[in-house]
Design a protein that fits this description.
binds manganese (II) ion, DNA polymerase, domain 1, TIM Barrel, single chain, alpha/beta, binds adenosine monophosphate, 2 domains, 10 helices, five-stranded mixed sheet, globular
């Protein structure tokens, strides 16, 4: 099906979301989603629950993950869809990618202590549903709930973005490895929210060319992170680079996310939807035809 309400990017308590996989499945169904993927950061531990919940509520389902990658000294995200979640190389790669997070969290807390914010490590950990996956989002929740900032946007602007006092540079996976783990596990690699990065046009071209060269097949065009103009820009990019297009809210939390599950514009009709590449990887619910 070319037009359908696919939401192929969101987060559960297994990474930095606030809902369980089952709560997300129900919310997606309620919002009219027909094809759903859970894409936790660097972690596939929620996929078994997500698959059962999707079947229970009558949603077609794809496995998913969002891998943190360092490219030209920036952090970028590669979404994987429709892979075999038991693939040993993928699992080992994700384990390695997550492995530095606790150390990084301690360094972030030390940095924040230097600017007068005490107890941030324990504070962030308290919000992490998965202690192996402490993320900047958990620090942001701590800083909002303790009244240091008004909202998570302000926390990132003041403390957690590159160059701010709580930011700690981190070496994530390489682009080649992330794309390779996903594709060798039978999935499709998707360049996530391309408008969020701060590359100049040459660097962005290098990213797209390398991504494609390593076997990347799709790019997010319609996402909760993109304005209408950015959707148009990256629709054009998809055509220029011969990439399929993906669509996903990047939903994290009812209290924090501006875009709810499935509440997004459709993909432009000129593009090849990523799910057409994944027809044999979709786990069909019994209520779909
Ligand atoms: P980490 O993987 O620990 O570096 O955390 C990255 C996560 O922080 C992203 O996946 C988003 O959920 C969140 N994030 C990044 N920038 C912002 C922002 N400006 N406002 C709110 N959340 C953000
Ligand atoms: Mn996140
Ligand atoms: Mn992301
Ligand atoms: Mn995301």
């Amino acid at each position: 099906m070319k037009t359908q309400n696919a939401d192929l990017h969101c987060h559960s308590v297994v990474s930095d979301g606030t809902l369980t996989p089952a709560q997300l499945a129900l919310r997606a169904k309620t919002n009219g989603v027909s094809l759903w993927a859970l894409t936790d950061h660097d972690e596939t531990g929620g996929l078994t629950d997500a698959a059962s919940a999707a079947a229970a509520v009558g949603l077609d389902f794809l496995t998913g993950v969002e891998i943190s990658v360092t490219f030209l000294r920036q952090t970028i995200h590669i979404v994987g869809l429709g892979f075999d979640a038991d693939n040993a190389t993928l699992k080992a790669g994700l384990l390695q990618t997550r492995s530095g997070r606790l150390r990084r969290a301690r360094q972030m807390a030390d940095d924040l202590a230097r600017v007068g914010i005490a107890g941030a490590f324990e504070g962030a950990l308290h919000y992490a549903g998965n202690p192996d996956l402490v993320s900047r989002t958990h620090f942001a929740r701590f800083l909002v709930d303790t009244g240091v900032c008004r909202d998570t946007g302000e926390v990132f602007r003041k403390y957690l973005n590159d160059g701010k006092p709580g930011y700690v540079a981190h070496q994530w996976a390489t682009l080649q490895n992330a794309v390779g783990w996903i594709t060798r596990a039978g999935g499709v690699a998707v360049l996530a929210h391309p408008a969020r990065y701060r590359f100049d046009s040459n660097q962005e071209w290098a990213l797209l060319a390398d991504f494609k060269g390593h076997g990347g097949q799709a790019i997010e065009v319609v996402t909760g992170s993109h304005s209408v103009d950015e959707c148009k820009t990256y629709a054009q990019t998809a055509i220029e680079f011969g990439l399929a297009a993906s669509r996903g809210s990047d939903f994290h939390s009812p209290d924090e996310s501006h875009t709810d599950l499935g509440i997004l514009p459709p993909l432009p009709g000129t593009l090849t939807p990523v799910w057409t590449l994944l027809a044999d990887r979709i786990v069909r619910s019994s209520s779909s035809c």
